[in-house]
Amino acid sequence: xxxxxxxxxxxDHSPEANVEGGLRALERFPELHLILTGDEAAxxxxxxxxxxxxxxxxxxxxPEVIGCDEKPTDAIRLKKESSMMKGLIMLRDxxxxxxxxxTGSTGALVTGAMVRIGRLKGVIRPAFCPLLPTMxxxxxGICDSGANVTVDAAMLRxxxxxxxxxxxxxxxxxxxxVALLNVGKEAEKGDxxxxxxxxxxxxxxxxxxxxxxxxxxxxSGKYDLVVCDGFSGNVLTKATEGTALELLKKLKKDINSRLxxxxxxxxxxxxxxxxxxxxxxxxxxxxxxxxxxxVIVKGxxxxxxxxxxxxxxQAFKMERSSLGAxxxxxxxxxxxxED
Length: 339
Fold this sequence. Notes:
Layout: E1 2-7, H1 16-28, E2 32-38, H2 40-47, E3 57-61, H3 72-78, H4 83-93, E4 97-102, H5 106-117, E5 127-129, E6 131-133, E7 139-143, H6 153-171, E8 178-181, H7 192-202, E9 209-213, E10 225-227, H8 230-255, H9 259-267, H10 269-278, E11 287-290, E12 295-298, H11 305-320, H12 323-332
Parallel strand pairs: 1-2, 1-4, 2-3, 4-12, 7-10, 8-9, 8-10
Antiparallel strand pairs: 5-11, 6-7, 11-12
Helix pairs in contact: 1-11, 3-5, 4-5, 6-7, 6-12
């Protein structure tokens, strides 16, 4: 049995979406056991009248909630009765619990994970790796997307190693094509960190490094993974998501502007629905925190039930594949880093 903690508060649609997503995941994975943290009365109201295997679900009362506007260091220090901190403390103290899913404050989750959970052996810094859909129907990972604003070349190589193993073990993408985010495709482009990282990535045995990537090619389908610092990765991810959403809005506005366009849209309604689903980030789960000593998945703050279900699926498959042990073994082949 794989036990996963589900933080039921902190997201825009909590606790209803979190509980619903959890129940869907329980139905799909017979080996899954969920521990729901949050206000017990509110969680029980969401569970009322629902059928589920009560032996595979438990509730831990946590009356406080960490808001996204709170300072992370203060939140993890002062709000020990919050749904997030209760979960992280349990994750640290209990060997039978594999991981945690949260849609709450990103800053508090990262800070709490580093303070309470720690890193895998050899990992310099953990990194977030979200997924986006590509134009050929695949996915592309972005590592890092916000956990580390500044990086060095050795960290970028570790991001590539960890995320490649993640894509292989969880999504079955063998030998993922790895690119380095840069201002040009030529090997000599970029600052000193990018130039050094290019050399390290090129010389890493077993890593399918295919060179630099310009941001405009992110969704092209030519790459499975892009490695970058957390600042650039966060901007890249949000700019891409925002552009897609605004284009959909414009398309809808233009269709409604003329009767002829509306008639044409009716004939293409099925295609439009398929494209909308394809671009819906809710279908791609959350950002996994690679390098943490236990599984951590951060869902988007606006996650609905389907996204929460996907986040739990990610955590479940990461643990089932023993991803942490594989990351440690792969990193150990290269340089040994001081804690």
